[in-house]
Amino acid sequence: MEPLRLRCSVQNYDWGKIGDESHVARLFSMNSKSEIEAEKPYAEFWMGTHESGPSFVLQGDESRTLKSWILENPDSLGERVLEGWGGDLPFLFKVLSVAKALSIQAHPDKELAQFLHKSHPTIYKDSNHKPEMTVALTKFEALCGFVSLEELKGVLGSVPEIVELVNNVDVDHVLNIKEQDGGEKVKTYLQSMFTQLMSASKDNVSEMLFKMKSRLSVDNKVRLLTGKEQLVLRLEKQYPGDVGVISAFFLNYVKLNPGEAMYLEANEPHAYIYGECIECMATSDNVVRAGLTPKYRDVQTLCSMLTYKQGFPEILPGIPLNPYTTRYKPPFDEFEVDCCCLPKGASMVFSAIPGPSIFIIISGEGSILTGSMEEEKITEGDVFFVPAKTEISLTASSRDDNSSATAGALQLYRAGVNSKYFE
Ligand code: ZN
After folding, report:
1. Which of 229, 279, 290, 322 could be cross-linked to 225 through a Cys-Cys bond (beta carbons 3.0 to 4.6 Å apart)?
2. Same domain, 264 and 233
3. Global pTM?
4. Segment 356-396, tens digit of pLDDT
């Protein structure tokens, strides 16, 4: 089979970077040959079969979705993927441009996803779980998972506004837990405090945030505020009066460098804060939100679904596959991501594999070649669906007359089913 060019969808959520500032806007405009609207936020570029942002096949009838093409050409998935996930692509591939924080959220596991979809089908639109992975394109900031016991004790000792809002018995218990007794014991109190905080009344939250701001502005004159305190003040400007602002004290502040990745298991709280990234996930859009959002909040579901596991998340540096390619392999069957940077004039063959892939050209230009296809030019914003068992060869342009910083180099990302699934 031959690779298919795709025309992909964009999401203009209000937290996206605006106009030309947004890498998503540039990719979308190159991909769809459309103008960028200067004032509009461009948040997410979606590549895959999810019905909320379908990709279209640029071949013959251009209104044909990748999903319907795959249904008619199930061999393109390969036997093992067909067996495992039926006639659909198991992963959804995205680029994100984040200007302001996304909601504090978690994604349900399969069982909870099915339950939520059954009981509230208009809010929880599909019944699939949604493990996800983020690979930073720029410096990328996020909140992810609960802080360690030690850091939590520090928070209770230094943020009196939180202590005022939650039950003092819980606070005393946490302060008296010893590191070696931590684990399960602290989870109960952490869940209780986090739930009290997230369910606090609007008035109480506003009052608490007002007190905290006043205290920090006094402190700011005599000491340097901590990274977390500075972050909380930043979030408060973006979402005044939102309880999500203060909940940041409970979560790890993660800063990824370009090329670093992190992944999120089901039921782990997180919020992306700033930067641009590649994201891959199981095909699903199931999000339970509880703060930093104008959208629907489901505080009770969120607080009861979380695992309350504590500690800093694992940062993946990626595994070098060859001089040009780095692979990010999360502990999920549905997906893995490769980053490939070809210097000027270099070529690389992506061998045939048992499952399907999606490729996106992030920057630069070059050409693509397969056994049966004529060599075609490729450039920023081009997206290809590469069927199972299809070998492709990519070459970076050797032209020197381009003035952009990436002249001649070709940077692309590939998403595919996790190779460990085929072992
Ligand atoms: Zn998420």
Report:
1. 229
2. no
3. 0.92
4. 999 999 999 999 998 777 889 999 999 999 999 999 999 99
- The residues, ordered by sequence, that sit 6+ positions from 281 with a Cβ below 8 Å of its Cβ are 91, 92, 94, 130, 131, 132, 133, 334, 335
* Whole-number average pLDDT of the chain: 91
User: Which residue is associated with the tokens 């050209």?
Assistant: 361
CA 147 to ligand 1 centroid distance, Å = 18
Are 270 and 251 contacting, i.e. CB atoms less than 8 angstroms apart?
yes
Task: Look at the chain and report how many structural domains it folds into.
Answer: 3
- The confidence score (pLDDT) of residue 400 equals 63
Q: Quote the ligand 1 centre to 271 CA distance (angstroms).
A: 7
259 and 351 assigned to the same domain: no
pLDDT digit string, tens, across residues 314-325: 999 999 999 999
> What is the distance in A from the centroid of ligand 1 to the CA of 287?
7
227 in helix, strand or coil?
helix
Cα of 367 to ligand 1 centre, how many Å?
A: 34
Provide the pLDDT for residue 409: 87
Give yes or no: residues 126 and 162 share one domain: no
Whether residue 173 is contained in a domain is answered as yes
Residue 71 lies in a domain: yes
* Residues assigned a catalytic role: 289
